[in-house]
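Review box. Two proteins, two foldings.
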Amino acid sequence: MTRPDPVALAVLENRFRAIVEEMGEAMLRTTYSQILNSSRDFSIALCDAQCRLVAQADHIPVHVGAMPFAARAVADAFGDQVREGDIFLLNDPYHGGSHLPDLTIVVPVMDNGVLRFWSLVRAHQTDIGGATHGGYNPAATEIWQEGLRVPPIRLGEGRLPRPDLVMMLVTNTRMPREVRGDLMAMIGAAHLGEKRLLTLLGKHGGAMLAEAVEAIFDLSEAHARRIVADWRDGTWEGEAILDDDGHDARDIRIHARVTKQGDRLTVDLSDSAPQTVGFVNSSYPNMRSAVAMAFAYLLDPEVAKNDGAFRPLEVIAKEGTVVWAREGAPVTLCTSHCSNEIVEAVVKALANACPDRAMGGWGRRFRIAIQGRDPRRNRNFVWHLFHARPGGGGSARGDGWSTAGEWHSAGGLKFGSVEMAETRFPLFFQHHEFRPDSAGDGTHRGGFGGELALVVESDGPCRGNTAGDGARHGSVGMLGGEDSAPHRYVLQRSDGSERVLATKEVGIAIAPGDTLRVQAAGGGGWGPPEKRDPAARAADRREGLVTR
């Protein structure tokens, strides 16, 4: 069969993209939890029968690069036992997942009994059981302390989930209503993707779509290789440093040795620090996704980010290091850290090859999850902090975006409406604004981080867990740009006393009337500060964003 003509390929590529975008809209409108329908911590992907990424929506980059591993894990586990109407589920980082809070639904798309595609939905749950609420346990020293592990399982048949398995899953979480509702939304979105793909298969046939997918991959590969070929040849090293692992390890080194030759890149992370006791270790799929993210950020936005686009990239890593931990190690923080540091190390190295494409560091993640009782509804709640986001890095094109978020989400995570958060949870935001002087200086400065004061209005004691990094190391400056200010989180008691919160704490006592004061990091600067436009400096001072 001859391949489709260029017009047909353009139409089909955009059709695949439209499907994943529609699936994302369905998720946004049907999920139950704040973490999904407000902060949008979910992602969508389509893979072909060979588990290669065909299309992704613009959601959370660190999810999508890892989702083909989920499809592969299901294919390996069930082989020729996959049937039309099956629903598969997994979250285990050592069996196709990234970290335990991310449940992944995988639905096969069959054409007259032949597997043609996989429809995937990955979504971060508000709780996944384990020793602590909210899915993050900074005290964990093994994965069994982090939550419920689910290797690939057949969750349902005939397009219906099994009620007993769903009950087993939600019973192992602290928020069964939210997790059940979110799981049903995920299944619905995956089936929507299946339905749209079945329509395409009915119109074009499986053989023609398979040829189209191969051609789309080849076009993306050629586009990516043309870009890489213009970069300078050489071998360079980049390094990023994690604050700590929540235990005894400090200044944990992520090292990338990057070789660019012709239209090919090799990224070698083997010289990174040994795996740690704490949960900053990365699973293999997450590490691969982080390297793919770094590469994707340096390509043109028009390059379709599918399997073909990543063919110029080879990744080398060593099992037993922090970027690829051996089975059993805790890894829950990995989608934020060390994925952010992997991206940072790779971009720092490649700044030598393509300086006009490299950007200053984006802020690091510093979350807090608060568990308590809402007196207005007389029920328990778990609230995840997504407000007061850090800033994005400056670039050759201009200043960084303020409160845009971290490397691993690139603006995909939202903080949502302050008023909606106050309506849904016993919280009061005294203020929520840009943090002055938080951005790294440069020819183009970083974006500013956020700042907030948040009063907890429960009628009884609450507990908080923190999970993140960046209270010691700010967002990195690039090519002469300066680092940003680091994070600073403070808990202010109702009696006026204060204590600074560490990035990895368990069981923080929070009393009614206590105030959480957050000062988030900005983004790193790009280029020498002395080359910054004086008019831009004056504008920042007029607006109160720079006071120095």
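Next protein.
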Amino acid sequence: MHGVKPAGTGADGDMLDVAIDALDPILALMALIQISGDRTLLHRYWDALDGRQESVVEAFRDIDAHDARAPVDPAIARDIRDALRVAVRSARPAVMPQLDMPMFRRMSRLLLGRDLPEMSMAVAFQHAGFTTDTRVRAAKQVPPADFKVIVVGAGMMGINAAVKLQQAGFDYTVLEALDKVGGNWLTNTYPGAAVDTPSRVYSFSFEPNASWTQFYPRGPEFLSYLDRVTDKYGLRDRIRFGTWVEGAEWDEARKIWTVKAVRDGKPETHECHVLIMAVGPNNNPNYPAVKNLDRFKGPVIHSAVWDHSVDLSGKKVVLVGTGCSGVQVATAIADRVSELVIVQRQPEHIIPNPQAHAPVAELERIAMERIPFVVNWKRLQSLESQMGDMHGMVLKDEEHAAKTGGFGPINDGMRMMCDHYVRSHFPDDPAMVELLTPNFPVFAKRPILDCGFYDTLKKPNVSIVRGELVEADEQAVILSDGTRVECDVLLLSTGYELHFGRQFDIRGTGGKSLKDAFDPHPFSYEGMLINGFPNFVFMGAPYSYLVANHAVVSEQQVHYIVELLQWMVDDQLSAFDVTPEATRAFVDDVDTNLANSAWVQCGSAHGYYRDKGADGQKKVILAIPRHNSRIWHDLRAPRQADFTVIRRDGAAPAADRPMPMLTI
């Protein structure tokens, strides 16, 4: 991970020199200290560099936005860069590849210009990639050969689980319905599909990618990253592709799961001691209820299952939906179609995003690829805004609300930014501003990073109407107010059905199904475990989203899973199950705090955050109202008092090994 390509000569070497000369001197110093192992450099340059940091903001803003800063003395910057040049060209192994925490504290303080909160210090250390091993339990036993783990899904979560299970010595198999790795990124191929989290941090911390070509990579580039990780860690032979899991049943007597699947049209049965579902919440496309939709003569395409055989060139197209995928599709196809009518049920908060289509500068890529540790320190810069206190962003500040009528300091600030942004695009069109301005807090629905949507709306062949699709005829769609819009093609960007495992026939203790357990709404303990389903881990279960990107969430959950499995091995457990009391305590605490959030106090906002039960009632189950740094600490190790466990017959926990004194 921290290797460096040979410096070379000629054009290749010249480009490295140019990249070093363009590198921020403070960041250059970070790399130099680790390569050389010279801690005194930190003290030597501290006074000259402190207060001259570049503040990089990652969360929902330009990730290279920075405040005005005093320039570094050119002579000092030259000294640092020249020393770094010599160190890199030597191509010798880094003297300090691993940082101790005191050194990380001081170096991060100089780089960021402030001390990270204590709760975020270890979190930043890991997620910036300065450690690849966060295990807490000192393993006493090697996992036995007959201890089997099955992971369902080879998307981002499943790949993460496979890497760490392999490193921890567990025998595992991944069952994947598709023929390649990638999950949603394999199936979401609509025009404009892109990651809406900056590429610097949307990757595994143990395998940062220095070679992103864009700040917000397109789907194919992210898929190629997952392919590289799969091959680097030798996972492909452990993945059984084309295997559709139908369900699983807990065998109480044998303490194993029997997994039922179909491959090549033939039923299969697999057995395991621990079953890990890594399928994610976004499953089948969500089709709106539209009367007589089958009468429409043209193609009907959902963004989640795009039909690339349909040529949109010169067509009149109606696009329904202005969420994340909707704005990406609109921006991507507007110049190809003859006319685009966008049907917006509700406006969204859209945030400035200058780097939506921007490439990563060649010199930055060279620096991250060729200079050890630069990719980690840049990653830390992008993580910084997530590591601080976020008071008043998602949870309501009642005192602030009483004084201002708003929601919270950060939430109101973001809302004002969004309002200013839409007005700046349509300064002479108050009707359009009103049409595009939500009347609810930011985060009541997922905020959208602008990928050029407002500029798309200005195109002469593009229009947007407020309404809801309710009916169709042979040549048109009809909105709720009776408006009839003729079109050749109907595109639906209307999201997914969030099953949370209810699409599988999973049966736990006493044969109770997961679907029945989740009536009226899905729930979990710590976003992963469900009472009544022993030895079952559901990654990305309810109460685990919206506070960090998918890479961060999955790494934290996988860490917890490995700790849980090692506890089973060390204490000779045949089964674990979280108690109903612990589950209720967790759910009650989360629900109580959710009540004070923009996700629940959402005004008129609708959307996928809210699960609709059989009783018609809606409940927020996707989010967890806790700072992600707290979650990181919560998931360091299982709280054993929250579990009922069964020990293997005749077995005892592994004892500490005696250490008799040796003599000569």
